[in-house]
Design brief:
It is a single chain. The protein is of the alpha/beta class. Among the domains are: about 1-50; about 140-195, no CATH class; about 205-380, P-loop containing nucleotide triphosphate hydrolases (Rossmann fold, 3-Layer(aba) Sandwich). Helices cover about 45% and strands about 15% of the residues. It has 14 helices and 11 strands. An 8-stranded mixed β-sheet has the order 6-5-7-4-8-9-10-11, sandwiched between helices. Helix 4 runs antiparallel to helix 5 (about 165-180), helix 5 (about 165-180) crosses helix 6 (about 185-195) and helix 11 (about 320-330) crosses helix 12 (about 350-360). The longest helix is centred in the N-terminal third of the chain and has 34 residues, at about 105-140.
Length: about 400
């Protein structure tokens, strides 16, 4: 067997060199990162006869000496032996050969091919895992690259769609805390993030406009918030400025009739001022705004100068860059809090977490489903962490 050590800056480059010199039959015996030169070193081996272009053949077994060609005595046929016994023996031998041949029928060959393909795929899967593992090691601080639990945590944070730079920072912060105080790694991660998740503790403003990008669920959030306020014995009314969207006003009107709160549709500042006078005695007036105004940077539109506060609805199924753009549009002194909506419509909340870690907004409410008001609640750090991390990840890391 020929054994050789290969080295390069990246593992794929090492693999290509092994394939060129040793061929596809090569076996990886060991691999490591050399801290002195920063190279990936892989020791591989291959049998001489498996080398590319090799003419080496297996040494044949020792041939026994030929016996002298002497006539062998013929065994006499026993009396009573029927004629054709020799033919019967030949037929039995042929039958046995056919049975062996049947073992190689197409169905069995297909099964053999399937098993062989599975073995190859398993080997490629292991190689892919090794490459990913090394790539993620390089992303972490050199101090932590030999920690398998940290690499696993880093990969699983990336699987939630969290931005890589934030994932690296969180893992290393959790590692520092874990090294200093001990305890479970995921618990340290949660304790690291919880102080960052700020909740809006103030009472609801008397005039609150619901903002958000198209499809974020603004009208649904308004209805859920109205139901939550009514449970606290607050007098609620609503104003809709979204008169261009088909069915928006009529949908809100149906909820207003069922839940028995006042509703006015306004298309001008005069109509808005009139509606505010009518609802002056209400504890909470919620305003359903137009997506068109939001996208045209007129986030308050007709509400400009009314001292209205805004509640921004951010759906969990938006990409990180779209969430950031929506937040920047709504940002200002009138922004009271944000609502994370549609938390039940995606399995990965990393985009929302990325936004939260970057801009640290005041979290107002979570909308986790279609039910009113059961699927609407005050924002809670532990609940958001549970939804983001997920129990399978936490259990796998803590074991």
């Amino acid at each position: 067997m020929r054994i050789k050590r290969f080295a390069a800056k990246q593992l794929p480059e090492v693999i290509e060199r092994i394939k060129e010199e040793f061929g596809l039959e090569a076996v990886i015996l060991s691999q490591r990162e050399n801290p002195e030169n920063g190279l990936v070193e892989v020791t591989a081996g291959v049998r001489e006869e498996d080398l590319p272009g090799s003419l080496v053949c297996p040494v044949p077994a020792k041939t026994p000496k030929a016996e002298p060609l002497t006539a062998k005595p013929v065994k006499p046929v026993a009396p009573g032996t029927p004629k054709g016994s020799g033919l019967k023996a030949y037929q039995q031998a042929a039958s046995l050969g056919q049975a062996k041949a049947e073992a190689l029928e197409p169905a069995n060959l297909a099964s053999l091919k399937s098993e062989l393909k599975g073995a190859i795929n398993f080997g490629l899967g292991e190689l892919k895992e090794l490459i990913w593992d090394l790539a993620h090691r390089q992303s972490l601080n050199e101090k932590w690259r030999d920690r398998a639990d940290l690499i696993k945590l880093y990969r699983q944070l990336l699987a939630t769609s969290l931005e890589p730079e934030l994932a690296r920072e969180l893992v290393e912060m959790a590692a520092e805390s874990h090294a200093a105080w001990g305890g479970e790694l995921v618990s340290q991660l949660r304790q690291t993030i919880k102080p960052i998740l700020k909740r809006q503790e103030g009472s609801l403003p008397p005039l609150l406009a619901i903002l958000g990008p198209s499809g974020s669920g603004k009208t649904t959030v308004l209805v859920k918030l109205a139901a939550l306020a009514q449970k606290k014995a607050l007098k609620v009314a609503a104003i809709t400025l979204d008169t261009l969207k088909l069915g928006a006003a009529s949908q809100l009107a149906q909820y207003a009739r069922i839940m028995r709160f006042g509703l006015r549709a306004c298309q001008s500042r005069a109509e808005l001022d009139e509606a505010r006078e009518i609802f002056e005695g209400q504890d909470l007036v919620l305003v359903d705004t137009s997506t068109r105004d939001f996208l045209s940077d007129q986030k308050l539109g007709l509400l400009t100068g009314t001292k209205a506060k805004t509640l921004l609805v951010l759906p969990a199924n938006l990409k990180a860059e779209d969430l950031m753009e929506a937040y920047q549009r709504a940002l200002g002194p009138e922004l009271w809090a944000v609502v994370f909506s549609k938390l039940d419509e995606t399995k990965t909340l990393g985009a929302l977490m990325s936004l939260t870690l970057k801009v640290r907004p005041n979290l107002g409410f979570f909308s986790t489903g279609p039910r009113i008001p059961e699927d609407f609640s005050l924002a809670q750090a532990d609940k958001f962490l549970d939804l983001w991390l997920g129990s399978p990840m936490e259990e796998g890391l803590d074991k």
